[in-house]
Amino acid sequence: MIIEIHMELDASILVPVHNEASVLRENALKLREYLMKVLPNHEIIFCENGSTDETAHITKELANDFDDIEFLSLPEPNLAEALREGIKAARSEKVVYYPIDLSVGLGFIPESVSLLDKFDVVIGSKRLGAGLDGRSLARKIPSGAYHGMVRRLYGVEFTDTTCVKAFRRSRILKIIERVPTASRIYETELLVEAQREGLNMIEVPVSVEEHRPSREGLTKKIQRKTEDLLSARLDLISMYVGAVMFLVGMVVLAYLTIDKLLFASQGGFLNPYSFLISMLLVISGFQIATFGLLANLILQIRRELAQALGRKNSGVE
User: Fold this and answer.
1) pLDDT tens-digit map of 281-297
2) Which one, of 274, 90, 121, 114, lies nearest residue 196 by Cα?
3) Do 133 and 241 belong to one domain?
4) Are 116 and 184 in contact, with CB atoms under 8 Å apart?
């Protein structure tokens, strides 16, 4: 009689890869060697997405050579899609997202796996202490500005949303469908949704080194992320801008009205153009704020539909 024993995995390490042929094999072996020491019962999921070099071929070879390496492939380059499909494919309840360039301290992996016993999401942050971010100023300054905008627009306390992360798979699966993978700020929106869902989250400091220059031009990267960040909170921005315009218009209109009452003998407004401008501010401000409220309502409906779809797909009624 043969008895099969299936040990629960310590963790699934998710590594998205795109055009990484130059470092893939060497870094994959370093990562695997480290994991064999600290988390012997693991799996590494390489999610290749839209590579045009030998990345897919090398990853397949690694999966054939080692039982603890799994291979996924997506036709288009899309980090968000790679993250989502990798989480779905993971066999462990604990999933750690880690970069193939090994730019983040490897210690985050066992630390986050341990913390997932108590928390649903563990966020690695290079901004929680001095000296943690070893990248150039050209990358640190825009990163700081971006996360400052995230905190103000979303009302969250995260200091870093674009670094390493770890999730309890059963908890994050409930919300990954709510964020469109076309978004270039997918990681940020996913964490915001996780907070809205009430998941138990913690940030931990991690050290980051710049092992290579950014894969995308800095100016283009800033432009794209800013566009997505602002469009994602178009509702809030519209309400703020509309409210300010409306209030300024009302204040100017009140001033002109008082001015007219004090100098009624002259007839009409002393400055009719100011009156017209103030009326335009009031009307336009009201319309923009109303648009923001409608956009917020649409987003709420979208979120509710996504939650209902997620419950249906998971079989929970």
Assistant:
1) 778 777 766 766 665 56
2) 121
3) no
4) no
- Chain mean position to CA 265: 62
Q: pLDDT tens across 158-212, in order?
A: 999 999 999 999 999 988 888 877 777 889 889 988 998 899 999 999 999 987 7
- Write the DSSP assignment of 178-235 as a string of letters: GS-TT-TTHHHHHHHHHHHHT--EEEEE--EE--S--SS-HHHHHHHHHHHHHHHTHH
Residue 187 shares a structural domain with residue 309? no
Identity at 222, one-letter amino acid code: I
**Residue 2 confidence class, pLDDT cut points 50, 70, 90:** very low
Which CATH number characterizes residue 197's domain? 3.90.550.10
What pLDDT score does 139 carry? 85
**CB neighbours of 277 closer than 8 A, spacing ≥ 6?**
249, 252
In a domain, 6, yes or no: no
Domain span at residue 208 reads 11-231
Q: Are residues 56 and 160 in the same domain?
A: yes
Task: Tell me the mean pLDDT in the region 17-30.
Answer: 96
Domains of the chain: total: 2
